[in-house]
Design brief:
Elements: E1 2-5, E2 8-11, H1 15-25, E3 37-38, H2 41-50, E4 58-62, H3 68-75, E5 79-84, H4 87-100, E6 110-114, E7 129-133, H5 139-149, E8 155-161, H6 162-169, H7 179-187, E9 188-196, E10 201-202, E11 209-216, H8 223-238, H9 244-247, H10 249-252, H11 255-264, H12 278-290
Parallel strand pairs: 4-5, 4-7, 5-6, 7-8
Antiparallel strand pairs: 1-2, 3-10, 8-11, 9-11
């Protein structure tokens, strides 16, 4: 599907183009790399629109695959830094963009980094937004990694497995609230932005997807406090049904020590992790520092 924008025309990928590219590369999508490629132009444009991508800004995309979303971002006028672990896909992406978004429309605004996203700690252009169809198997770790390492990121919109997306955006007290919810909340405010049918992907996954957006805010504490807070979060949710005085006993030394720390933070020792927000966990850390 083509759309004319300013200086020229960008062609987005459809089902036939996706299959042709896969055949060209001898590509058999793998579950290990979470490869499910979007082949619906309307879905791509919906994601780009929901992400609020503006002409002239720099966007980082993780796992661009065959280029469906990349072309949509370029169509909106953004510059794209694409991080792709698969060498074949990383090599092909500039070629695809050169053919379907020629010249200033795309190729001149694309940078491809062939690397494992979990190992990337520097990016060109200080991207302000993260927009991606994230592989299901690494969606939470890679989000947290990028938020930790790239402070230029002000906002983002990602497509993830529905179950994971609802967990990331969950509030305390929700049945799906957990460690990912708390860790994500350290960096910003999250909300879901609509379901995506499994039928817009090739191959068709066995789960539905959801769009999850975030607006970054100033972290509530220092980097040292973040590490200590996340350690408490992990301990609390390894045994989420237990009271915090029990679940935190290992990391704080004993049940008695945990009770003392919780009370110093203004929290009941009988509380459970699923009842607390990220600032309450930070308060537990600070109560220990003040002791």
């Amino acid at each position: 599907m083509e759309r004319r924008t300013g200086a020229g025309t960008v062609t987005l990928l459809g089902p036939a183009e996706i299959r042709d590219l896969a055949d060209l590369l001898g590509l058999q999508p793998t579950k290990k790399l979470g490869q499910n490629f979007v082949h619906d132009a309307n879905t791509v444009r919906r994601i780009v629109s929901a992400a609020g991508v503006a002409s002239g800004e720099t966007v980082v995309e993780i796992g661009p695959g065959l280029g469906s979303l990349t072309l949509g971002l370029l169509e909106a006028g953004a510059s794209v830094v694409a991080v792709e672990i698969d060498a074949r896909l990383a090599e092909q992406l500039p070629i695809t963009v050169g053919q379907l978004a020629p010249g200033e429309q795309g190729a001149d605004r694309l940078t491809v980094i062939n690397a494992d996203a979990m190992r990337v700690t520097a990016l060109p252009g200080e991207p302000r937004a993260l927009v991606a169809n994230l592989p299901y198997n690494i969606s939470v770790p890679v989000l947290l990694h990028f938020l930790e390492h790239f402070r230029s990121l002000e906002r983002g919109l990602v497509m993830v497995q529905a179950e994971v997306g609802y967990r990331i955006a969950a509030e305390p007290g929700s049945k799906v609230f957990g460690a990912p919810s708390l860790k994500a909340a350290w960096y910003g405010k999250w909300k879901t932005a609509g379901l995506v049918s499994r039928h817009v992907f090739w191959p068709v996954p066995n789960v539905d997807s959801v769009l999850v957006g975030f607006e970054r805010h100033t972290p509530p504490g220092s980097e040292t406090e973040r590490l200590e807070t996340f350690a408490l979060v992990d301990a609390a949710f390894q045994q989420r049904r237990k009271m915090l005085r029990q679940s935190l006993s290992g990391v704080l030394g004993s049940a008695a020590a945990a009770s003392t720390r919780l009370e110093a933070a203004g929290l009941a020792p009988t509380s459970r992790g699923e009842e607390l927000g990220i600032r309450e966990f930070l308060a537990i850390v600070r109560a220990g520092d003040a002791a």
